[in-house]
Amino acid sequence: MSDIQAKEDAAPVDRQSSSSVVVPDEPSPLRKMISVASIAAGIQFGWALQLSLLTPYVQLLGVPHKWSSFIWLCGPISGLLVQPTVGYFSDRCKSRFGRRRPFIATGALLVALAVILIGFAADFGHTMGDKLDEAVKIRAVGFFVVGFWILDVANNTLQGPCRAFLGDLAAGDAKKTRTANAIFSFFMAVGNVLGYAAGSYTNLHKIFPFTVTKACDIYCANLKSCFIISITLLIVLTIIALWYVEDKQWSPNADSDNEKTPFFGEIFGAFKVMKRPMWMLLAVTALNWIAWFPFLLYDTDWMGREVYGGDSAGDDKMKKLYNHGIQVGSLGLMLNSIVLGVMSLVIGVISKKIGAKRLWGAVNIILAVCLAMTVLVTKKAEEHRKIAGRMALPTNAIRDGALSLFAILGIPLAVSPPCLLPIFVTIIHELLFCLTILIHFLVYFIDYI
What we know:
Order of helices and strands: HHHHHHHHHHHHHHHH
Strand content: under 5%
CATH topology of the largest domain: Growth Hormone, Chain: A
Shape: globular
Number of domains: 2
Number of helices: 16
Helix content: over 70%
Number of strands: 0
CATH class of the largest domain: Mainly Alpha
């Protein structure tokens, strides 16, 4: 659930369907593909908010900084289980509304439920008995965690059927399939930019004044406002697509029940036949993503805590500094998405000129240098506060340096490992996400004892 997740979601749309895929006699018009693909903008808007705002928000509810990453375990778990399961049953759905539309509609409704639970967690918790002066608001955290897990399940329920629906509309036509992929990727980029832009704007609560309550301060109200916009966009786009684009009812062939469908066993069995070079590629990919995940989980938190010197558990002034850093971090993620989108358009040309292996090696070096530079930016920010005072904002040079790192990291994010199949990308992505969070847990546990 990250930009890495977003990039994987842009993989060929027709890979979600099984051999029992039913396609129309001819490809559907481009306008229908655009209508279905536009749902990706609503999905990605929510992902962007999830990445940029929710880790800081859960700390404001009282969850300690070092434990906040465990909430993200729902992402890889739901990715491993929900997407393949939904894809399997979507391919065999006999509903009169079609095979894809029931799952897309269900996913959109679950997103709406999750957003209400997350955005109004503080209010629900206060209503159920949380006191405003409590350090840890247990009930609010409970509502947040339940909503967070539902949100990840809902997003994974939406993504697979949307891609498969586009594959159905392409009707096996290679050119139409490439066009569908490009449109889907475009709307994902639009959703990213809009989501990060909304997260970086500090006055959205003024548009929705009812979001500010006793239990919900301005930062919390801005989060509510962002999610209100997100769910409105997603629901509108989903209703338009499901009303406008027909999804024919599936009638299985006589032999369809005997067809063998690749599922978990076949997927993991493919690892047994891989050659040594592929294992080396997977090992490097593993190290690559173990480096990525801490940044993706804590990027805006790093900006608020290390660069701006704020603290989500401090006094009002420290919280204000922290929130200011979060907003600037969201701006950095918007720049990251813009660079990612531009690189995605030119990456094919660059790969042809210098070769896929050299390109992948180069972007891994860029990734390593940029992540190492975050330490330098942190040290410079600390030195500045020692001289200018604890409450001093970072200098323009420090802030611009941090934003530059966000933007440059869009380059390696746009490049996938060469010769790695999308299904392996998804599986390894989710497994390594779990592994990284468990490593964090082990480190914290050892430090605790």
